[in-house]
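Entry 12.
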Amino acid sequence: MEDNIYKDLKAKYDAIGQNVDTHLRGLLYAKPMTYWDYIQTDALLNLQTQRTTLPDEMVFIMYHQINELIFKMILWEIKQVAFNEALTTHFFAQRLDRISRYFDMLSSSFEIMGEGMEVEQYMQFRDTLTPASGFQSAQYRMVEFASTELINLIDIRFRATIDRNTPFSHAYDHLYWQAAGKDHQTGEKSTLIQLFEERYMDDFITFMKTYNTLNLWSKFKSLPEEDQANLELRNAMRHYDHTVNVLWVMAHFDAAAKYLDSGDEEAEATGGSNWKKYMHPKYQKRVFFPELWSQEELDNWGITNLKAHKIIEH
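Predicted 3D structure (tokens):
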């Protein structure tokens, strides 16, 4: 057995032009692996920096950092589908189910926001966050770009004017979430949007181009017709679509409402957006895979609870 292991190691390192004995000698001086080194717990636990002395701000910071880690996991799963050149319906559906479970975690975790912070504390420390906003999660925007064709993310008022020949920069300027950061009278972009674009717009354009033909919907449409008819896959896609664009969004909406509607007057989001019209799915009708839903389901998107959202085989 030991000889076989050595032979396998030698073959591995020979293949990359390395001397296996050199690597084995290096193991003599290597420290044993520990949990804290592998997970990098010291670095991870030192990433929380409060701007106030209010204890519940720490809950808010850590909660959003966990969200960003989950978004990274989601993008990791999508990438496995996007760049898979031998894609099967089972693999596709399995990865979608993983992603949906991540979003289920995100949806249920809003109880941490809704029940886990004192309203008075939140309304005090939130003023120090302006103009920052969860709106500025670049990873979540990338999840959207990687999930569907760009036209499905365009503000519904402008979709008829945009097609595949439209420059990416023009399409970007008409994404649905742009409306949350513009003055509706003048069209001027808020500080929220300006800072976001200074940091990420070039990255977004590159990412949009990369996933233009590799997004989940495009990958689905690239499958043979027989595979596109596969119920396991179609139900997984519908489940993912509804989980992200209705259940998760509404969980976020309800958590925000508890705090922003808690005073005598309705509060603005920290970024200054009309958060109710921006967030509620019935206004923008964000749908990743519209062709997989009936017209009645689309008409009632975000209004009727589509718990029974599976396609039933007749």
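Annotation: The radius of gyration is 23 Å. Residues 54 and 121 are 6 Å apart (CA to CA).
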